[in-house]
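Hello,

Following up on my earlier ticket. Below are the three sequence lines again, exactly as submitted.
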Amino acid sequence: MDFVAGILVSLVIAATPLIFAAIGELVVERAGVLNLGVEGMMIIGAIAGFAGMVDSGSAVVGVVAAMAAGATLALLFGLVTQVLLANQVVTGLALTLFGLGVSALFGQRYTTYSLDRFPRIDIPYLSEIPLIGPVIFAQDALVYLSLFLVAAIWWALKFTRLGLVLRAVGENHDAAHALGYPVIWIRLGVIAFGGACAGVGGAYLSLVQTPIWVESMTAGRGWIALAIVVFAAWRPWRTLLGAYLFGGFTILQLHGQAFGVSIPSQYLSMIPYAVTIIVLVVISSESGGSRLSAPNCLGRNFQKPK
Amino acid sequence: MTVFLELNGITKSFPGVLANDDISFTVKRGEIHALLGENGAGKSTLVKMIYGMMQPDAGTIQLHGAPYAPASPAAARMAGIGMVFQHFSLFEALTVAENIALGIPGTGAGTDLGDRIRSVSSTYKLPLNPDGLVGDLSVGERQRVEIVRCLMQSPSLLIMDEPTSVLTPQEADLLFATLRKLSEEGIAILYISHRLSEIQQLCDAATVLRAGKVVADCDPRKETARSLAEMMIGETLAEPEAVDTEVGETIFEVRDLSRPAQGAFGIALDRIGFDVKAGEILGIGGMAGNGQSELMEALIGETLSPSESMLLQGRAVGHLGPSDRRRAGMAFAPEERLGHAVSPTMSLADNTLVSARHTRNLTWHGVLRPHDASLFARRVIASFDVRTTSDAQIAQQLSGGNLQKFVVGREILQEPRVLIVEQPTWGVDAAAAAAVHRALVDLAQQGAAVVVISQDLDELVRLSNRIAVLSDGRLSRARPTSEVSVEEIGLMMGGEDTSHHHGAANA
Amino acid sequence: MLRLVPRQTGSTWMLWSAPVLAVILTVMAGGLMFLSLDVDPVAALGHILLDPFSTTYARAELLVKSAPLALIGLGLSLGFRAGVWNIGAEGQFTLGALGGGVVALAFWNVEGAWLFPLICLGGIASGMAWAAIPAYLKVRHNTNEILVSLMLTYIAVLLISALVSGPLRDPEGYNFPESRMFHASAVAPILIEGTRAHIGIALAPLIAVILWGVLMRHEIGYGVRLFGDAPKAARFAGFTEKGTVWFCLLLSGGLAGLAGALEATGPLGQLVPDLPAGYGFTAIIVAFLGRLTPLGVLVGAFALGVTYIGGESAQVAMSLPAAVVGVFQGMLLFFLLSIDVLVTNRVQWVVPAAAKIKAGP
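Thanks for your patience. The regenerated structure is below:
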């Protein structure tokens, strides 16, 4: 029983960074911007969060530092693509390379530290329910935040004016501009938001999952987050499904031995990536399907008409 | 009626062109005022300044006697000016209510808005379902969304930019009824158009622009179409006449061509069939968005069809791609020049390779022959009077008219058996348009079969031996132009089968 | 205030000075970065920019480093031009090394001049096979090639690690996760005595010239250029997306695979788990630095080779972390992308509308 609970808790911990990164990127893509630099923003958040917590002793400072770092790097991407009109695909890549390099550079000082256990919030009574209690009601604040964030974004996109404007910008930026909306500013805003979310996702890795700092510790999760957004067909609730699915495969690979699996670990590690490919194929070949729901202006830069 | 809007000495220039030169006129309250002029006369520029999208270099505007200088469209809207553009600002994946909410600051798309939309739309007979997706609406319905969006902000002046260019004659009549009702309520309408008969039908007053200046202020109901046209154009142009050529055997035939709709907002082609004979020009008319692009794609071979659905002199070609069709003797000139017919950033010489590299031997086993391409380009330039510095000039530097002459010339000099052109004179100056028409007629006279797909009824009537109409992906039977009235074509565009009408009339 | 105004025609001057400007800005920003890390910027930059040219061996190493970057970059540049985004060159490089390496190991006790070309073919074939996956999925299912090729890279890296620790492990190697050393016939021929400069440094310029010919003088290259400039015109001209996707992905996969095989049989001399050294990603920068033209890619590869060799030198001489190279490269790309806007747009000083009060009657 405890073993199963343990696995489920691991699942939550594996999925949470993916949720943050994916939901942030989802909002960005709904507004029409494709930011492939998620990996870079996550790793920058990881080192900023780690450094913040080590230097100040406070988890809150760490998380805030991660958000700020992610947002800053994202705004660099925003500046280059929205104002200077560079290609979004290549710039996102540059962001990743740059983020990985800068984080390794600044992380040098921190490789010898390790952190205390991240504060956990145990909800009274509910957390004592056997099996699901510890899994659902005794997690750290960031887990609850991730779920709240998904709900909040779903609600905002569907019911608020801001959400409507965002969707409009992603659907037809020329029309949005003609109606007087500041397309570039709106996109810069969501880009920063996405960066902050990815930063928190990265910080979750260095603060909670394995509370030490290792170069490139995101290990490609940023790319999986991108795949999750597509998998979710740009709908907020489905990112939860995607994140837990992918988190699940990571767990399988970690605990494969315990289940009596004797394949070398590298092959098990391949599974999430292979699954992503399969999911991508399934989604993109559905006639209509999610192609219908891809924001129309995704990846296209907005240029003011003469 | 009191003076509502007054323009005095409005001037605006851009690098190289004086778009508006000392323009003055007035619009009275509740008046339907036409702004008349050809493409490039300065109508759009003027109206953009009234709507706050640009500021004039000189001159003043008065609204109700007070100075009016909006810094943005939002300011114009607040002052009571609404505008319905020729190209709509709509979001296809969002609902009607959401689209309207986006146009009105500070509103959410709740049920409240839905009710208000329903009430406005019933008052003005512009039926709309607030919860439907805009992408599912026809062009005429989408225009209604734009109009309702304006009306909900209680404007006192409504500017309409070429509103009927995308409507069937029947939809246009509905629009006129709505506009008259608005005018009765005291809302002034500034109606931009170059369609003389409409203006005579609808408007109380007209200001005629030509080359940026006001050339006349008049009451269109007291003028004739001819006098209005002369004011607009300022000269008479020789029109080529469709000579009665000997029409030969069928060269190209389309049979039962169907294609499901591509993408969420595409049009399905439904059993399209027609034939073209040697020496004949077949005109295919229809309003924008009724399947012309889809048909053109299929005819070019950018999308493939069942082999037997297209026959070139009896040979099945439906399954062939564009290059093979060209080798078989077909040539094409699509609607969009820059980006489709030619590459904007390549030279004219390089652009000949787009369609002529196989038919004119501009490659040898795949290796390009740039010198031969250059020679061919020069031939096109010389034969079709393309004003350009050389064949090395980049395509996007040419004017619309010259580029179109190059495109059409490039195809004609390949000596095709069949030439299919789409919107051959759209956005082209009058002289170039005449040249293109002449070239098409000459080609037909030499025995080729020509198909002209166009939204310009006048052009089709002038050029074609036979006419068919494309409506909602369906093609009517082709009938000799001399036997069909413009009225009937209009009805066919709306999807009605005029043979029924004939039958009913005789019953 | 400043405004960007589209140019009538692209500025050729800007097109070629942009990379130079980007390099200069990167050097400056790099200097600042060193300062912030309490490192002597002049000394550090000196190591990075000058050391690669200081000795014959260093210069040879520069060529050795530039060769794979050039080969991969050449393939990528064609694809990027046509809008085919192969981001998985690193994976194709790795598979190429595996493919070539497997051939080498299969004939580990056989000598012959035919072996090396066969190894190269093996590398090319495996690189192409790995690139064929995103190509097929894109053509058949319209799946985004960026994510697919990227996921395959991760799989490739894991694969080489698994194989080198398992079936390909050197039986006489004390259980280290590495393959046998390649024998004389399987090693890339050295062109400069006393250095590691192998045949790859000659292949790169040769292939660059061939690709230039294809791009500018052959119908296939014309199609690639058209897809880059005006996709609708390309389709109108009879070129298909499917054909272009296959061509570009197989070409870049094959070249990346060749680079991998050369790397394995050249500088490395064996298969090891960390064979994937990021060249596939760096080559993307190389392609853009080289303005997506074959000859430009050669220059770009050279420039980035300098950052690698110089970076290593600075690492050793001044105890700087390896990551400094990655930061330099990321910055270079960023600056280049930022400056690129000036190729198609002009900066204009625009007087705000409010200031233009017209005097009127």
